[in-house]
Amino acid sequence: MNNPHITLADILITTPEARRSGFLEYALRRNKEAVPFIDKAKALKAILQAHTQSPDDILSIEKIKESLLEAAGVSVKAKAHLSIADKDRLLQDFIDKVLKPSGSAYIEEMVYRYLLTSGDALGGKMRNIIGSIANEKLTRFIVSQLQICQIEFTYTRKNDAFTHGKHFTIDVADSIKAIQWTNGQNQQRLLVYNVNVPQVKKNIDIVLLKQAVANTRSDPLKKVLADEKNYLVIGELKGGIDPAGADEHWKTANTALGRVRTAFNRQLSLIFIGAAIEASMAQEIFSQYQSGELANCANLTDDNQLASLCAWLIEQ
Amino acid sequence: MNNPHITLADILITTPEARRSGFLEYALRRNKEAVPFIDKAKALKAILQAHTQSPDDILSIEKIKESLLEAAGVSVKAKAHLSIADKDRLLQDFIDKVLKPSGSAYIEEMVYRYLLTSGDALGGKMRNIIGSIANEKLTRFIVSQLQICQIEFTYTRKNDAFTHGKHFTIDVADSIKAIQWTNGQNQQRLLVYNVNVPQVKKNIDIVLLKQAVANTRSDPLKKVLADEKNYLVIGELKGGIDPAGADEHWKTANTALGRVRTAFNRQLSLIFIGAAIEASMAQEIFSQYQSGELANCANLTDDNQLASLCAWLIEQ
DNA sequence: TAAACTCGAGTGA
DNA sequence: ATCACTCGAGTTT
Fold first, then answer.
1. CB contact under 8 A, B116 and A34
2. Phi, psi for residue B35 in degrees, rounded to 5
3. For position A219, what pLDDT does the model report?
4. What pLDDT is recorded for position B160?
5. Does residue B246 share a domain with residue B198?
6. Residues A270, A164 share a domain
7. A59 Cβ nearer than 7 Å to chain C strand
8. What is the rounded average pLDDT of the residues B66-73?
9. pLDDT tops 70 at residue A159
């Protein structure tokens, strides 16, 4: 029982207040992220007003072809899977069946449709942002623990060389790829985020290794990752606050952790950190924690739980 | 090896052509579903034009308060988790920081923002539709098998009484909740979709039982579901075509199936049907199929695989 | 209401 | 290009 704050399953459950606060932050951030999408829609409108008199003119403006496709309901993701013929058909259908019947309102119709697709895109973007905010919060707590314990550390953004921890500021926390330190027993420790673990051929959110590397560019790190003896901790982090997604994403995490258990011949510590934890999954998580299948766990919205987990992590 | 079409893992992999076709269908359907969202935006614009002269007038129009909140970036889902104070704050911020600075373009700004949120909503709606289309396809293949085998069956839409299969038409396939028949060995069979299995306290996509019920209203069905001896097959169905979601959703399905294995004291047949199957997960699925952990499996986009699975299913 | 279902919009390695 | 990560927009029971 490595986390003194996890004494029973119910403690893991996310409070309504944490949920409220999470959704509020989400709405505020979403409004900020909406601006460029709104701007692009306005720019599209301006181009259409300046360069078209009727729907038939639209196809001839090369620079808005992609926007036209998006207005026709095709996401950037979907585009990659469609053939040229599919896209041409969708465009022509869109012009004939949607824009032309709108008469003189064809510009408004196209911009409105474009915004619908943009809204879906904004939603996708937000989901990624929420994930990296969770990562950032974990980083802040780990760094705080290192500082409290007066452990010197280095960190790297992207795949650059390591910078001394004394240069660490809150504004770099969102781009940290790896942190390195020497623990109380004078052992090298390397924490890497979102890295492909070759033993499972899958990316893992949190990986703690017992080797130092000069940088996280492919080769030196790959060599360390290749040897399963170098692994200390592997963890899954789920930053989403939506209770409706809680069990869904825990099921995903659970299979991901199961794959690690199967792939590694030696036992290593597995951890789970989630922001949306509901009663039923709290039982499963706690049960795995009690049996040792999970070495540690925490609710990301509970500072005490998270701090305890980080304190444990840097001591491994 | 219950499915003669599943001879090796790679056969389960979704073809690029099936993917292309899936994304094309998706785009066409999305454009149809977009219409009411576009209409609501136009209606909102009309109300704003008719009843407001400036952003300050908006709050006084009670009937557009929810739309205003959505324009302010709050989804219907998020609304449920926010306090009145949160929502008031978001509304006021939206008016002060977004609409007022737009000057005379405040109506356009509000409608554009509303459309962004609507686009996310449309995306959510589409995801549900894709799921029910998959269910519908499975129903059509099962009914076809029953018809081919000249097995009489009854079906129920929603939770009504059962209707004789001779009344079955393609247009009801999307609302079938359960199908009942008597198999070759004169045994009662009941197939139910999306039903809560009390042994795991979770909903399961596909459940085959060996009891008949008069209707699928709570009580008679609940009694059958309560006794684990009545279960023959439990299955997960994943209708999504996006390869990026394939492993994600297989991981979810895998934990769901794992929960069933753990919860049931007797062995029962577990099956998996997915539309997006990638190489790596195909190996895992096939491996479970070979070991018997999965009794059957199929790629939803492959008619032969699906028909074979359905032929096996109605013989159980 | 609570709980957990639907799945692809992004992203990056 | 390939693969598999981010998570909440809907929905139902």
1. yes
2. -55, -55
3. 79
4. 74
5. yes
6. yes
7. no
8. 95
9. no
